[in-house]
Amino acid sequence: MTATELPELIRHYQAICNAVPLYPIHSEVEYDRAVPILNELLDAGGADENNPLARLVEMLGLFIHEYEKVHYPLEESTH
């Protein structure tokens, strides 16, 4: 990437982040926004690893998972 390409990359990233939270989730508001977006992406075919949305689904899913590990931990099974 060249220095002249960086401003364009920043614009594109900001536009994407306005639609999809592609950053670590830090609040319930961000989480509540992210989950339905992930579901829409999955419904649009993003679960298929060959789909152009697959990497976007993977990244958003990782951010959601990290938030859930901290804020919605699974209880230990007794069985």
Major sheet characteristics: none
Q: Please state roughly what percent of the residues sit in beta strands, choosing from under 5%, 5-15%, 15-25%, 25-35%, 35-45% or over 45%.
A: under 5%
Number of strands: 0
Give the helix level as a range of percent.
Answer: 55-70%
Instruction: Identify the overall geometry.
Output: globular
Structural class: mainly alpha
Low-confidence stretches: none
| N/C terminus separation | 53 Å
How large is the count of helical segments?
A: 3
| Rg result | 15 Å
- Seen as an oligomer or otherwise, the chain set is single chain
N-to-C SSE series?
Answer: HHH
Give the overall average pLDDT. Answer: 92
Please tell me the total number of domains: 1
Main features:
mainly alpha; 79 residues; single chain; globular
Give an account of the 3D structure.
The protein is mainly alpha-helical and 79 residues long. It has one domain (6-71). It is built from 3 helices and no strands. It has helices at 6-19, 28-46, 54-71. The model has no long low-confidence stretch (mean pLDDT 92).
Summarize the structure.
By secondary structure, the chain is mostly helical. The chain has helices at residues 6-19, 28-46, 54-71.
Which helices and strands, and how do they pair?
Layout: H1 6-19, H2 28-46, H3 54-71
